[in-house]
Amino acid sequence: EDSTRVEYHHIAPFSEDGLTNIDNIAPVCIDHHKRIRTLSLQEFRDKLKMELFFEKNSGQKDGVRLDDVLTYKLGENKYGNICKYEVSNYHIRIYLNGKIDETFQLYKCPVTDFKYFYMLLPIEYLKNDLDLQPRPLEPGRMWELYRHFLRYTQLAPAVCRLVDGQILLFDGQHKTASQIWAGRLQVECKIYLNPNPRAIKETVLTAHDKLRQMPF
After folding, report:
1. Per-residue model confidence as pLDDT tens digits over 148-160
2. At what angle do helices 173-181 and 139-149 cross, to 10 degrees?
């Protein structure tokens, strides 16, 4: 309402050789212009929404989880859908929405004999594994991963288990939540078929403790 509160922002950043012409300029309020720096307008909108999302959910006893992100993006009870499946010795056939979606190669761990497969999974079939993934989301980490996945590829899939038709994610919560926040409707997953939960829990704990990757 007050034109003195409006400034003009380079959509492609001036510091990255963005041109000062009408096609590369957008009006923003003076307060947000101080904070936007070299972010694109969409990135900055997503950042403001993420800050508000964590602020609104900050009072939750167990913190913010992947399920909260799925609720925000898809709606209440619009995720964690049950999928039907058929298993043979070497393949698994997945049914989504009552239809044959695809047949996937089954692999077997040479140590535990756990069977697993890889799938690009629609996010409405995903749910956080509360038994094996008790940690809350960290807003700073989620934001950095959001920006990373706008520009770079994913090195490893999220890891899930398929139990009673439900796909539960127990490793890769932050990268999955950040990609969903960026608008992805499918995520890369490695999915174990009814593994022993105790063995998986011990693996997850060890991977995030004694076997954590050494930083460069």
Report:
1. 999 999 999 999 9
2. 60
